Hints:
This protein is mainly β. It has one domain (3-155): Immunoglobulin-like, CATH 2.60.40. It is built from one helix and ten strands.
Amino acid sequence: MSEVAEAAIVNILLADYASADSASKLNIIGGGITIVGLAATGSTSPFALVVTVTLPPTHYNAECSVEVLLEDSAGEIVSVPGPTAEPQLMRIGHSVTFDEPTFQGMTVPRRTMRARKQWVLQFAAGLPLSIGQKYAWRVRIDGDTNDRWIEEFFVPGPAPGVVLG
């Protein structure tokens, strides 16, 4: 496992809606969901994924790759239709440098705070996932992962006798 992956603290959160403002503060509505419902379109309801990776001050300026993957219940990466309808793996990757935090207009002793990167992925149209299935978002850092870096969710079907659409 890479030094960065060993030192990383990863948090993953699903929400009905999330955004980050210009100061990187998160605004979350309906955070902590584990069930992502269905829309009449056949896709899931809209939802957001928030991924935060923090490193201790000893790792300021560390560089790494961070991937966010959607896996099915068998641990396989899920494919969804891309812009041209061709299936594409649900995998988002970033090259990241963990800069030392700065606080404009404030006095904070150097090397006090952890370095942090966060991403808010908004799926405003939902995703075309199978009903009655469990899925998991997984984070990999430099190709490494562990079972603490996953967030599972379930896509339920309609109640018996209920027809969508």
